[in-house]
Each structure stands twice: as C-alpha cells, then as structure tokens.
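Need tokens for this chain, all 360 residues.
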Amino acid sequence: MGAYILRRLLLMIPTIVGIMAISFIVIQFAPGGPVEQVISDLTNQGAGDRLSGGGDLLADGSAQDAGGYRGSRGLDPEFIAKLEKQFGFDKPPLERFLTMMWDYSRFDFGESFFRNTSVIDLIIDKLPVSISLGVWILIFSYAISIPLGIKKAVSDGSTFDVWTSGVIIVGYAVPSFLFGILLIVLFAGGSFFDWFPLRGIVSDNFDSLAWWQKPLDYLWHMALPLITLLLSAFATTTLLTKNSFIDEIKKQYVTTARAKGLTERQVLYGHVFRNAMLIVIAGFPGAFISAFFTGSLLIEYIFSLDGLGRLGYEAVVRRDYPIVFATLYIFSLMGLVVSLVSDLIYTWVDPRIDFERRDV
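Here are the structure tokens for all 360 residues:
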C-alpha cells in the first residue's frame, strides 16, 4: 500500500501541472484581461478627461489603441506599459507560467490585482462560510441519504418507497436557487413571514452575545441556506444507496447468510453494507469538492454569504487572475488528495481490494 500511495502522490504533480497549464493557455485567449479592466474603469469613470491636463495618462494625437488593447485610444503607451509590468504581462507567457507554478508549489499565491491584499488572506477570510456550508451539507446529506436509501431498498416497491421516490425526484428537479428564493419570499421578509435573517452566517452583535446564544444565532442564520442545499444534495446519494443495496441483496452470499440463520439486520449491516457502500464512497470526492467550493455559488449570492464560491466567481468576472488560479490550484489539489483518501477507504471497507496489484 505504501508504494501505491507514493505513486499516487507523484502522479499528482503532472496532473496538477496539466490542469494549470490548460487553464493558463485558455486564459491567454480570453478577452478582457486585467489591463482592459483598468482601461474600462478609466473610460467609464471619465478619468481620461479629468487627467488629460497631467499628461501622465493621455497622449495627445494618438489615433490607435495603445498597446493593442481595446479602448486604450488616447492613453499614453508608457502608462499601458506600466500596467503590463504591474500585472506581470511584460514577461513571456512561459516565464509567467513557470514562475507561477514555482510560487504555488510553495503555497505563495501572491497579491490580488484589485483587492490590495494577499490571495491567501482572502481565501482564509472566506473559508468560514464555505466550511460552514460544506461540513453541514455533507453531514446531513449522508446522514439522511444512507439510512433512507437502505430503507427504500428493503421496502422496494412499497408505498413508502414510491412516495419517497416521488418527493426525491421532485426535489432534485427543482433548482436549488429557485427553492432558496421561495424560502426567502416565505420566511425571510419577502412577502409573508420575517422569521430568518438574509445576510451573513452570524449577527453583527455576535461577539456581544452570551455563550449559549452564539450557536443559536449561527443556526438561525444557516437554516435557510442549508435547507436549500439539502433539497438536492441527498437525492443522488439516496437513490445510489438504494440501487446498490438492491443489487447486493440479490446476490448468492446474502441467500447463504440468511440460510445460516442470521437476522435481517445482521445480513444488511454485517454483509451487504460494506459491499453496497463502495459505490457511494466512490462519489465522495466529487461530493466533497462540490459541497465545499462549487455547489453553493448561487446560494451564497441569494443569501448574501461571502464564501469561496462567490470569491472565485467575482475574480473571474473581474479578471483577477491571482485569485482565479489560486482557487483553481487549491480546489484541484484538494480533489486529488480526497480521491486518494477515498481509495484508501475502499481498502478499509473491503479488504479484498488490493491496489498494489493494479496499475495506477
């Protein structure tokens, strides 16, 4: 097992480099980079007219866009060159990529282009929201999905199975952001009741609350976002668990175990559970990454939660490349690590699996 873990760890290096290289190449062809963002801000704010007397930004008589950037007509080429140097675009793409990867290998993510702070500080600042959503969604979704999936498998075809399947399918079909808007209209001061807050994960006076009031305040703020995310979070896992258990229950070893006089509970949790859970474990890395980083973007916007999903989206819109690449690097690295952990859990759940005898 040690050799397998070492191979997987070594394989992460070319994988992460490949992910970053493809993304870096795509970014080079994407219009509206940070230089264009600054030029657009100057143009939209009428800064050119206000600063024309200084002569630092404008070059009189310029008939073409300076530096080849759209909208830079009339700006001093020296000013454009300073912008390129500030953002690091004065260097060849290959040199910029190699420098970025060397810095990222030491977890040095640099400074944000437009937020005047380090990228790692921004990520740490947004982590509490994403962790709050991710941890609770994983706990609740698996705590609901696995027992419900087992119950549906045992009572396959019953009234309970049919009704719960209908509820799950409808819940999964409804987009989570629409359900979130419905909850806001009903319970967050939209048109009916004003029972829940609509901003942040704690109140502004959180620090002044008594110790026993703080967890209640936290749960009060998290109630609607969690309910919204849970609507679709447990649907796939529930149906996956049910189908996996049904497949295992039909196998010969289950019949043999029952013939030996084992109770139904001993058969389900002593024999079927380990084999049926393998396919559920296989989906854990994707569920982990989605719950923590990608699955809550719209929910963060709807409920005014300032988390990593919202940070990454705003960075893409703003072309804040240090944040874009840093979040991509961290997400990809965590996905690879969680995938390895998932494989190790495979061997714990089913000792018959031996990765040492297989190629990576």
